[in-house]
Amino acid sequence: MTQKLILDYVYDHEAQRPNQVFLTQPIGGGQVRDYTWAQTVDEARRMAAHLQSLELEPGARIAILSKNCAHFFIAELAIWMAGGTTVAIFPTETADTIGYVLEHSGASLLFVGKLDTWEAQRPGVPTGLPCIALPLAPKTDCPRWDDIIARTPPLPGRPQRAGDDLAMIIYTSGSTGRPKGVMHNFERITRVAEEINRDIHARIGPVPENRVLSYLPLAHVFERAWVEAAALVDGNTHVYFAESLDTFLQDLQRARPTTFISVPRLWLKFQQGVFAKMPPKKLERLLSIPILGKIVGRKVLKGLGLDHVLLAGSGSAPIPADLIQWYRRLGLNLVEGYAMTEDFAYSHNSTAEANAPGYVGVPMPGVEVRISDEGEILIKSPGQMVGYYRAPELTAEAFTEDGFFRTGDRGERLPNGLLKITGRVKELFKTAKGKYVAPAPIENLLNAHPMVELSMVSGVGQPAAFALVVPAESLRPKLGDPAVRREVEQAMEQLLQDVNAKLADYEQLRMIVIVREPWSIENGTLTPTMKIRRNRIEEAVKDRIEPWFDAPKRVIWA
């Protein structure tokens, strides 16, 4: 018997639960629009019929440039029904990167969706590339989605795709160099989505519906697998979308998610938002009082919009162990996982039986893992990519002879299978002392401090390692006050001492450099998934490093 694929699940939901709300989209002014399964699939069928009328080649790459919205899901379904392959582009990418992805993928058409900087991005779209504007798109010259579906009858029946057809090419966010196109087929994304749902429902138990808020970029594998693909297969997941950063708390309160996934930087920002309202020591004191502690924790979670969350996950980058413990003290079941674009976000997750702060969990069902002699984590996953698009030599390099993917991450495993990430193979650097330093574990120690938003440890060829630190957002407006600056300096001097006490001699930091301009996606120092772009940050400060080492102080303002 042929196993169901993701589109089969969608057609079944259309038939079996046509009036159930699937997607809730904010449309401005506090208003939302709901899309039932019947409405979602009807719009997808109409757009699929239009795409087929264009007579594109089989498997044609069709791009989506959009922030998260209901019509990202609907456009992807239309692309699949019409026989195409989706290429999603991060909505914060520059015109240069947009142009590269469209050219490299050979895109035949571009859906332009909800965007903040379209005017700056538009030059990246090749002249003559057909475009279609989604309902929440900025003003464009493209034909409008609503006009097309109004005049186009829906594609009938159950249009099928083969399991080995390409469903999507996911372009990595490119923390170094040009992004690579990771190919995933329908068979593998479906099997992963099924397993993700099994995992989620085993953890949250029977609920009337699983509510999720979609806000991490859908162009990234984490959201694409754990929110979109999982919801398309599940059928009983209600997906809410965030409108903007400014409305994020209201969006959360509207969704009251039962499952919530995020990345370490946002978990840290949530914590710093709490600390801005209540000093850490006072909160710690209240949480330590038996009955009162539970009430306070619940109140804090309610203020964050997370009081209904039954499963909270962190992924995409290492999260400080202290931060996980802090959320658990509030009563939030926060677990860390580990995966990557190349295994469709399906690799490791913490369980009730096997979890420990600082560890990313155990292999998920069907995943094999081993550590190479060089300490590199090697993974074989049901979500394994087909390969890198138009790069057979890179694909060959990425796998061992027996089919394990070379993750590029260094790790250690406990006897019970718990995995700890100890850094990136390529991020290791040598100081002038000739010893290798792994920056990620040291950055985790620094990032756990409430005054630190982000940090980066560097020191290639220098007398010692050093750290660049971005102060917490709530602190930045106050740094013009000499008293606040002194307080920050003292705190950083103490942090330097505390961190160095936990490190080997050759790893110890010579200094902490406080960065005045925050790192952001917009200024190119963070990837769209908020990982630091080490090369760009190091390049920006390279001429100032020598004077920093010559300075007598251990805490320096950049």
From TrEMBL:
Domain AMP-dependent synthetase/ligase: 14-389
Pfam family name, one: AMP-binding_C_3
Catalytic reactions of this protein: a long-chain fatty acid + ATP + CoA = a long-chain fatty acyl-CoA + AMP + diphosphate
UniProt GO cellular component terms: membrane
This protein's record includes keyword ATP-binding: yes
Keywords, comma-separated and alphabetical: ATP-binding, Nucleotide-binding
GO molecular function: ATP binding; long-chain fatty acid-CoA ligase activity
Entry protein name: Long-subunit acyl-CoA synthetase (AMP-forming)
Organism encoding this protein: Tibeticola sediminis
Phylogenetic classification of the source organism: Bacteria, Pseudomonadati, Pseudomonadota, Betaproteobacteria, Burkholderiales
